[in-house]
Amino acid sequence: MPWAVDGLRLGRSWVAAPDPAALRARWTALAGAEGAERERLFRPTRSRTPAAGAAALPGQRAGSTARFADTPGPCPEPVRVLREPFDEQWLLPDQRLIDTARPELWRVLDEHQLFAVEVPELLVTAHLPAGRLGRIRPLHRRPGGAEPNLAPGLLPLLGEHYGGWVTPEDVLCWILAAGRPGPRGYEVPLTADPGHWRAGLELGHRLLTVQLRGARGGEAPRLPGGRRPYVRSALAAWPHEAAYDPQSETLSLGSGTVSPVPAAAWEYEVQGARVLEAWLAARRAHRDPEADGLEALGPAEWPQHWTSELLALVTTLALLADLAPERARFSPGPPLAPAGLRAAGVLPPPRWARRPASVLDHQEEGPGGQFALL
Q1: What is the C-alpha to C-alpha distance for residues 40 and 38, in angstroms, rounded to an integer?
Q2: How many CB atoms lie within 10 A of CB 202?
Q3: How far apart are CA 238 and CA 79, in angstroms?
Q4: Whole-number percent of the chain with pLDDT over 90
């Protein structure tokens, strides 16, 4: 996947939140403030200030390119993003508020797109990654899934070698099964054996299904045997503390309880941090008495949709933990010789494949309402 992009740099934390209603309230407060108070709430950086203009984000509403200090405009509809590993939140899609928004990623964001994120293990999401994450590799270089972000010639070469049609998503599934972090980055061995290829695809498709969590119209994953986490006792208006009992597989949130929460789900870590603990901490931060400015605007009570998201996250982490031993044991088998890839022109990928594709099929509104030619 030659084309890779660094993550978005938001520049101010208030533009993203776990609750979309909080973002609308923050926009209203900022748009209604004036002078020094608006400047304070905005939290200017060298890249973005209320007096700076910016282009409209591709795919978002036009008319948001005037200086915020002059014309804030109506609140843009928050969009779903991956803020942290396995933590799906919401973002205000207005480039006037984001230091580095990576418009090249927004141009290829649609119902066909998937993003692989190195953290350093590989995460795959259907939502735009917009947090402190690693390099982002879109599966497709153009909208509509028109061009895969793969080394040119790779798909026909693999199809000929393995005796069947190979899709971009197949390659992504193989990467999930066989790829590993290495000294040169995320390394993906290609197998010379069609049997190993089919086994890797089967494992990779299961991993992908779990990671997508029902996105793109798929069915949400479920624990085997009919087990599913649910709320045993109702959560309080705002649970301040979280505790876990491995004996009863119970997660306590204040006076409320959720079970069964498998120990493997509670212990699941990314970059040395427990995912569930980080997820809960991100939501409890909305009631931080020391929060100042727009970050202090959040829900007064624990939203019901957070509970639903928590139950889905527990299921996802438990299933990934169950698949981890199988993935650790998986061997790609005998490697495909690099010389064959070079002879076929697959390696090294050309320079143009490492850059975003040109998108010339529509106009984009630039700063001040001018149109940009891309």
Answers
A1: 5
A2: 11
A3: 25
A4: 79
